[in-house]
């Protein structure tokens, strides 16, 4: 186990470091590229007539004026030339100079300007990843094609969310998922993990080995309760870098059949109203940080409803909607809002559900990975991946099949 | 090329005018246009009513275009053009105006470029320059044109063995030429040692490889030889011109530009060869583009460009007088006027009206323009050969 660094201390009278984001104006076509980059895909526009790939994003094929569609393409490349930018008029980049960038010839055809990893130079082969910059827009980042990538590259760190030494709040650590997340964050080197414990206090929690790990601080927290939330945040007692919202209220039941209005209200209170409370309270804290992030764990049932879990799915749909708006708000502050979709989890709430189910530890690992990769949207497990693929290809058909 | 362009019969180019540049100006592009027109009127005697053709280039006149300028400046032209081509706009203005005069659509065409440079206006104009830049250039470090040309320079140096010393020779020569030009913003002597020791901006581009943005205006008149003579204006004829946009899109990096597509036709139409050129005024936003033009315009082979630079004197009294006013690298880059100052200087040398020292026995000038980095390279290129009328 690595030794934990002492927590950052801040002079309350010192002028805060102003945070800037990278230039954010983009064309509509570029936004379409960013939407795909958010899923971790490497895509280029390809002509439906001549099949040639093009970049930067256009509105017509430059070879035959045919229609362009987005397609996954190989991401190999060769570096043609490079520069180190040492002056800039942009406030964000001025904070991060010098900045290495270059031009690559993509195996897929076009040439492109890229951010250049420190281990790469001219004539090297590279794997180009489509990542989201601090303004939330897609950018090409050239990385070494093989071997372990040095994640301490200062430019790459701008595209990811480092966990080592950071202060993280887990909104509900009393569940199987929450405990696994606390463990994964601890293993990843987080400096302080504030573990929200849903009241009432349980005697077994006090002795739980995960909650007694070095750097883990359990606090009572119910995000539905504003007083509880304020008290918990006051106990953070310093900068807060990352919030992981694991709170959810999973209960079965339909709309007119086997419906329980009390459970339904609680589901909405946790997934929607609780989300808003948590986001409101944490946003200013995260905005002051160099690598602020908010990760939301969300059910893939949010995409198109679920007959057997109608209330839960509806609450999660509301959460997804709020999440989109919150993400947009936080882009201006350079705070990443990441969503991690999952299907049924191997926990007490999914006892009647047959496999496949996602183990809490796997979910937790996916959350840490999403942070490390800066991936805006992840799907964990077969159920969530399948749901997302079907929803993306034909949302109406998927909603119908999902609610048969 | 299926048709050979018609020669420019009965066309006279005259009255090069420069409104002295300043580093920053609180005034508008309209003000600068007015200032250079006033100077033009003093030099030629032409007033607003005489001018029946107007061609305008500017980056900072927004929201106005050439249309707004007519009313703003009291012009009633029967021929109007607006050029968004920046560094290539001088040559392009000449081409369009010459055909208009030749064909009788206009008789006295004022070609004018004016740009202001307010504090912080460079950053703003950069941020809104082009869609490809917003999508695929600025997000990569926001180095502006310095970064784009750093990449081109890096590739060019690797491809042709050109060194920083070679680029330094070009910059030092231009600075030496600028020393006699009272309007040049940078006239202090520049040594090769100082050039090499300058701070890096975007490797391998260093401080003295970069132009200084400034405010200023340039203008010239295209008319008939008869009118020029009647007004007592020294004039030049147009031997040949070329223009090309988005040439060689398949080249991964810009190691040559549009001139290379049309250069044989250019010299054939002009009826001269590079050896006949007395003054060469090329676009010089960065020395790599100067080197590129030396090859693409036919003064040397692409692969020999380093040797050519090393063995040639670019002084006003040298083998190949180059950018004799100091070019933009020493005189300053006044936005779109930067694409006109090569034209006015080329004219001045053969009309024997230099701002500084005169190129001995100058009769023929070649002027070359390069403009508009839309994404990763300059898109617009053009060149013109001018000969003094007897």
Structure characterization notes:
The complex is a heterodimer of chains A (404) and B (390). Chain A has 404 residues and is an alpha/beta fold. Chain A folds into two domains: 28-154, no CATH class; 167-402, NAD(P)-binding Rossmann-like Domain (Rossmann fold). Helices cover 32% and strands 22% of the residues of chain A. In chain A, the strands form three sheets. Chain A has a seven-stranded parallel beta sheet, with helices on both faces. In chain A, helix 4 (176-187) packs across helix 9 (360-373). Chain B is of the alpha/beta class. Chain B has one domain (1-390): Thiolase/Chalcone synthase (Peroxisomal Thiolase, Chain A, domain 1, 3-Layer(aba) Sandwich), CATH 3.40.47.10. A nine-stranded mixed beta sheet of chain B has the order 3-2-4-7-1-8-11-10-9, sandwiched between helices. Chain B has a two-stranded antiparallel ribbon with strand order 5-6. In chain B, helix 7 packs across helix 11. The chains are: A alpha/beta (404), B alpha/beta (390). The interface between A and B is large, with 40 and 38 residues.
Order of helices and strands of chain B: EHEHEHEHHHHHEEEHEHEHHHHEE
**Average pLDDT, all residues of chain A:** 94
CA gyration radius of chain A, whole angstroms: 22 Å
- Named at the architecture level, the CATH assignment of chain B is 3-Layer(aba) Sandwich
**Outline of chain A:** globular
The tally of beta strands of chain B, per DSSP, is: 11
The fold-level CATH name of chain B is: Peroxisomal Thiolase, Chain A, domain 1
In the CATH scheme, the class of the largest domain in chain A would be Alpha Beta
Q: What is the overall number of helices of chain B?
A: 14
Per DSSP E runs of 2 or more residues, the count of β-strands of chain A stands at 15
- The CATH homologous superfamily of chain B corresponds to Thiolase/Chalcone synthase
């Amino acid at each position: 186990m690595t030794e934990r660094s002492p927590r950052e201390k801040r002079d309350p009278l010192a002028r805060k470091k102003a945070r800037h984001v990278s230039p954010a104006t983009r064309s509509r076509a570029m936004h379409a590229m960013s939407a795909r980059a958010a899923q971790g895909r490497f895509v280029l526009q390809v002509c439906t007539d001549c099949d040639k790939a093009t970049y930067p994003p256009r509105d017509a094929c430059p070879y035959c004026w045919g229609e362009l569609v987005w397609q996954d393409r190989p991401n190999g490349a060769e570096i043609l030339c490079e520069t180190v930018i040492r002056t800039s008029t942009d406030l964000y980049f001025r904070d991060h100079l010098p900045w290495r960038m270059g031009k690559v010839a993509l195996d897929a055809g076009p040439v492109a300007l890229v951010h250049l990893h420190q281990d790469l130079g001219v004539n090297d082969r590279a794997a180009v990843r489509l990542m989201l910059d601090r303004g939330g827009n897609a950018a090409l980042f050239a990385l070494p094609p093989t071997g372990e990538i040095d994640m301490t590259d200062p430019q790459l760190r701008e595209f990811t969310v480092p966990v080592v030494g950071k202060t993280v709040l887990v909104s509900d650590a009393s569940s199987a998922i929450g405990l696994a997340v606390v463990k994964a964050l601890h293993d990843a080197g987080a400096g302080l993990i504030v573990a929200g414990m849903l009241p009432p206090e349980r005697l077994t929690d006090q002795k739980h080995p995960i909650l007694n790990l070095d750097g883990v601080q359990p606090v009572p927290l119910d995000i539905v309760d504003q007083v509880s939330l304020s008290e918990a945040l006051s106990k953070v007692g310093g900068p807060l870098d990352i919030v992981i919202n694991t709170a959810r209220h999973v209960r079965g039941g339909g709309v007119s059949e086997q419906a329980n209005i009390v459970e339904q209200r609680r589901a909405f209170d946790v997934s929607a109203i609780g989300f808003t409370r948590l986001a409101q309270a944490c946003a200013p804290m995260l905005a002051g940080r160099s690598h602020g992030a908010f990760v939301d764990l969300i059910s893939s049932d949010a995409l198109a409803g679920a007959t057997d879990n109608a209330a839960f799915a509806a609450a999660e749909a509301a959460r997804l909607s709020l999440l989109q708006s919150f993400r947009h708000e936080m882009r201006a502050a350079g705070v990443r809002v990441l969503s991690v979709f999952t299907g049924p989890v191997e926990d007490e709430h999914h006892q009647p559900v047959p496999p496949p189910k996602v183990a809490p530890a796997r979910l937790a690992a996916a959350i840490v990975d999403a942070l490390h990769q800066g991936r805006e949207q992840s799907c964990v497990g077969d159920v969530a991946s399948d749901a997302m693929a079907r929803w993306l290809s034909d949302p109406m058909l998927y909603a119908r099949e999902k609610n048969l | 090329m299926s048709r050979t362009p018609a020669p420019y019969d009965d066309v006279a180019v005259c009255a090069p005018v420069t409104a002295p540049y300043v580093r920053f100006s609180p005034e508008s592009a309209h003000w600068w246009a007015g200032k250079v027109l006033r100077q033009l009127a003093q030099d030629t005697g032409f007033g607003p009513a005489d001018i029946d053709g107007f061609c305008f280039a500017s980056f900072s006149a927004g929201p106005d275009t050439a249309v707004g300028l007519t009313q703003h400046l009291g012009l009633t032209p029967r021929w109007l053009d607006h050029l968004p081509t920046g560094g290539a706009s001088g040559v392009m203005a000449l081409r369009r105006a010459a055909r208009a005069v030749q064909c009788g659509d206009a008789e006295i065409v004022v070609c004018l470029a004016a740009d202001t440079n307010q504090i912080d206006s460079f950053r703003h104009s950069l941020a809104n320059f082009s869609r490809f830049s917003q999508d695929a250039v600025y997000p990569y470090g926001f180095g502006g044109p310095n970064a784009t040309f750093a990449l081109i320079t890096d590739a060019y140096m690797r491809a042709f063995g050109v060194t920083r010393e070679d680029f330094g020779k070009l910059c030092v020569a231009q600075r030496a030429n600028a020393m006699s030009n009272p309007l040049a913003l940078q006239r202090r002597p520049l040594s090769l040692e100082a050039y090499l020791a300058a701070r890096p901006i975007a490797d391998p581009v260093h401080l003295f490889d970069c132009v200084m943005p400034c405010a200023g205006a340039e203008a010239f008149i295209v008319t008939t030889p008869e009118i020029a003579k009647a007004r007592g204006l020294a004039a030049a004829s147009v031997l040949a011109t070329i223009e090309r946009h988005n040439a060689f899109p398949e080249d991964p990096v810009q190691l040559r530009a549009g001139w290379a597509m049309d250069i044989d036709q250019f010299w054939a139409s002009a009826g001269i060869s590079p050896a006949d050129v007395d003054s060469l005024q090329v676009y010089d936003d960065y020395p790599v583009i100067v080197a590129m033009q030396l090859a693409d315009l036919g003064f040397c082979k692409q692969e020999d460009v380093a040797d050519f630079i090393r063995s040639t004197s670019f002084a006003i009294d040298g083998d190949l007088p180059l950018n004799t006013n100091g070019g933009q690298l020493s005189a300053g880059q006044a936005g779109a006027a930067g694409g006109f100052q090569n034209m006015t200087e080329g004219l001045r040398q053969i009309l024997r009206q230099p701002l500084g020292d005169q190129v001995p026995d100058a009769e023929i000038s070649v002027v070359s323009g390069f403009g508009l980095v839309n994404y990763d390279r300059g898109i617009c290129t053009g060149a013109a050969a001018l000969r003094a009328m007897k």
